[in-house]
Q: What sequence folds into this?
């Protein structure tokens, strides 16, 4: 059974940093790209970062470039999202997801339609 479990969220002050983790299981970790998304209640889900299988490519949405960093540890089947200089507008539930096909598409990697398995999400709240 494919599972993705996010962790690392919490309440932080603006300007602080946070690292979210996405622990994957039930599939060959190196075969599938992983995406990070976030959603604020009442707003559309936003694709913020994605990492290709075997880390050959990483993409970020423009609004987080320079502050968000995606990395992976194949030995731990875990993808990380490091967030620095947190802003109140970063407050959201953060999700990781796995693509439904075992290959990377740059044109889809920030689009939710490319993903079929999702974690339960982890809440990040940034106070000003």
A:
């Amino acid at each position: 059974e494919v599972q993705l479990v996010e962790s690392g969220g919490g309440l932080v002050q603006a300007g602080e940093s946070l690292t979210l983790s996405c622990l994957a299981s039930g599939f060959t970790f190196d075969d599938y790209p992983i995406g990070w998304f976030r959603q604020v209640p009442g707003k559309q889900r936003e694709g913020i970062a994605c990492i290709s299988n075997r880390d050959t490519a990483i993409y970020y949405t423009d609004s987080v470039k320079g502050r968000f960093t995606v990395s992976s540890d194949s030995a731990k089947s875990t993808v990380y999202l490091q967030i620095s200089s947190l802003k109140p507008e970063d407050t959201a539930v953060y999700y990781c997801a796995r693509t439904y096909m075992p290959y990377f598409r740059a044109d889809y990697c920030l689009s939710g339609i490319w993903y079929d398995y999702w974690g339960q999400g982890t809440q990040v709240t940034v106070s000003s």
Q: What stands out?
A: The chain has a mean pLDDT of 95.
